[in-house]
Structures are given as structure tokens and as C-alpha cells.
Amino acid sequence: MITAGIDCGAKNTKTVLVSDGKVIGRGLVLTGIDQENSIQASLISACGNGGISERDVKRFGATGSGKNTVTNGLMVNDIEAIGRCAVFFFPDARTVVDVGAEEGRAAKLDERGNGVDFVLNERCAAGAGAFIEAMSRALEIPLTEMGPLALKFEKGIPMNAQCAVFAECEVVGLIHAGAEKRDICKAIHDAMASRIVSMIRRIGVNPEVVMLGGMAHNAALVEAVRRQLAIRKLLIPEHPEFGAALGAALIAEERE
Known about the structure:
This protein folds into 2 domains: 1-90 and 242-256, Nucleotidyltransferase, domain 5 (2-Layer Sandwich), CATH 3.30.420; 92-236, ATPase, nucleotide binding domain (Nucleotidyltransferase, domain 5). Helix content is 41%, strand content 21%. The chain is built from 8 helices and 9 strands. It has helices at residues 35-50, 78-89, 129-139, 143-150, 164-176, 181-203, 219-229, 243-254, and strands at residues 2-8, 12-19, 22-30, 57-63, 74-75, 95-99, 104-109, 115-121, 209-212. Strands 3-2-1-4-5 form a 5-stranded mixed β-sheet. Strands 8-7-6-9 form a 4-stranded mixed β-sheet. Helix 4 crosses helix 6 (181-203). It starts with a strand and ends with a helix.
């Protein structure tokens, strides 16, 4: 039986198809005003990727801010979804952090991936991808270049603002003061990492920390989080942006 896990987020809608615990397809589209259309488009994309028909999908698991739009699926909360994904890839993982476009979350897990404690960062952009996006506009640098430029820093610059609005003003001030953009980029990533690490520390830091979400592709952010946590490395699966969708699919499949 093929099961679809759908993560309808604020920026992107992701679908992962699984069969007997194995991933067979993935699809990602921008979340538009009409969430139903976004979910359908994501499902079509995943089915095309997996080489199957939509009619072959017999079960659905839904998570994310738009999960209630999936009326015929099992509702899976975000913490359940990311926890299940974390232990799927890394069975010894006991901490997972998920950093998406609009919000971040961290959870302490048991051996099954159930969340025994968690913390959310849903009211401040400083702990989510929107923070880097806002700073890229202030610096007039393409978003995709922010991370690589930060890794080329030469001088550490402290950034005091933890709010996206105030941080943008601080960035403008640094530009006017003649600071190098690569050094400002480094400061931006360090500031965002500080917010994420603060979340993780509230639930306790374990050696095996998994990072999910689209921001896990940003090497500068990953390194800043790793350094501030003082751990050897962060565990990141191959497609971290599909983490919650995969978790929802696995949970729905297991609850037949």
C-alpha cells in the first residue's frame, strides 16, 4: 500500500510517498493562497517523481499549518512528524530541530521518536528562514549566496538584535560603517543560530542532534549551530526539507 505524507507549510507544500517503509517519491511546490490546490499539485509532483498514479495512493498523513485542508488524512502534529523522521534516519537520535521558512521547533525524543518535551519558535522570524531572507534584502544579496558568503568571513562582528526588524536596522548601520558584507553575513547566521540553540538548550542537548527543514541546506547556519552547541556534528538526512512530510507518511502507514 502506498501512503502519502503531506506537509502544508507557510511557504512550501511537500509530499512524500512511502511503501513498506521506503520512500518512493517526493514533490514540492510553493504554497499559494489556495492550499487545496497546493496540496494537489504537490501530490501530483510526488506521484510523477515516483512513477505512479494518484489512484495508487491509498492512505494520507497530513502535518503543517495547512494540515486540516487534507480532509481524508490522518492529522499528525509537527512534533510527532519530525520526531518520527529523525529516528527513521538516525535511530539513536534524541534531539531534533526543524527550521523552516516561517518557524522553528525543537523536540526531545524517546527511542520511538515520540516527543517527550518540545519548544516552538513561531512568533519571531529570527529563528526561521524568513530572517535570512529579510537580511538578504537589506544587504542586496541573493538569498542563495548568503550562506556561501558567510563561510568566507574574515572578521567576527557581534550582532545584538534578536528581532528581525531591529536586526535589519543593525545591518544597515553596519553597511554604513563600512563592514564587509561577508562579515555581516557571518554575524547574521550566528545571530539566527543563537536563537535556534536557545530553543534546543531549553529541552536539553544530547550528542545526537538531527536538523531538519529547508534551512539545513545552509552550510553556514549548520556550522554556526554546531559550533554553539559544542557538538561534533549535526545529523542531516539527504532531503531535510521533506522531514515532516516523511514523518507524517510513516506514521500514517504504521497506523493502518
